[in-house]
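Researcher: Re-running this chain for the archive, since the previous output was lost when a drive failed. Same request as before.
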Amino acid sequence: MVGTVVGTVKRVVRGRLVWFEDDDQPIVYERGALAVEDGQIRWSGDFSALPEIFKDWPHDDHGTRIITPGFIDPHIHFPQSQVVGSYAGSLLEWLNTYTFIEEQRYGEAAFCAVMANRFLDQLIQHGTTTCVAFASVHKVAASSLLDAAVERNYRLVTGKSMMDRNAPEALLDTAQTSYDDTKDLIAGWHGKGRVEVAITPRFALTSTEAQMEAIGDLVREYPDCLLQTHLSENLAELEAVREAYPSALDYTDVYDRYGHLTSKSLMGHCIHLSNREVSCLAERGSVAVFCPTSNLFLGSGLFDMQRLTDAGVRTAIATDIGGGTSWSMLSTLSEGYKVLNVQGQRWHPFSMFRQATRGNAEAIGMEDRIGSLRAGMEADFIVLDVEATSAMALRAETVTSLEEELFVLAILGDDRAVVEVYIAGIPSKTVNQIGKPLAGQSYSAT
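Model: Regenerated structure tokens:
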């Protein structure tokens, strides 16, 4: 398995360190170094100040390339890996024509095991070192993905989707089975290695009131678990939710009345919100997750970040594979910039990179573990090359500041700009001659 650790791993990784803490001003070490041991950053700073204790450790020298915390994707769908780019005009058409059909394949254990590793391969190739993922309705899909993540020491949160109506029969559970399966997953996996289990209602339209009540019970019983779902993505969806829950004030109230909205709640999309709904999300501390490539691809609408942040709503940014069209957080930042710019909202390159790293870590409540390069953090980081393609290299000839360099990476970059990915301190993007991840790669003790 790629990235399997054998014995103690110690290394010094050199390059240009760039990361963010509590604001949008980067911490930069032009000739920086990280001392990494057993999956944790032991020391970070200027290479000239490297403590004597670390000097004899093996060195990975990345020259002047940027080393930044790995990207964090807080909204992505494991069973949709092979429906990316499926031709459809809107959300509900896309779900019924492709996605619900594809997700029926995820009830088979052997298939899930293969796809779990292919899913993680894609994330690592694109520089994503942590993700919060929806599995299918099948318990085996979630457990297969959790198992693969533990094997690779990959930081992952996932849960089985809960849906007991408005989907094909093969994808329906019940209020009781969804409650029981989620409890079993939490008992068996939550906190094992670097994985956690999320409470995962698909969205209000695919849950009966009985299931929504069961989900609320889980939220109260497991307050340390994230909840992930969808909110206010598409206008036809909003109308269908109004019909399904006629007594609710609005779409947000459907979740709120069952106790789903807390500071641990990740609400994907959040495009068509009333002022009351925005205020409710702010009061509950819930997170509105910006999914720019998906929102554009399915014609859902434009995420209004300024309106939400001005109201005190926490935000994150995500790929939303497979409604989203790129696994790359760099490409996602690029589309996010354009969505905001067309609304007259400028997004500074420092803010963009902070959001994809430390900001998303804050959104999922893990800023004490990931999203930074300071000592004591988990050693999940990536190496970026602003000259990764000929077009990028041509543009980079005129770059004169870190701000410009990060903007070029965000606007023109993709997986080719991600030179190396360290998962718990292990370089994991090692490739063979045909550009595929090496199988069976392991690292001996030093």
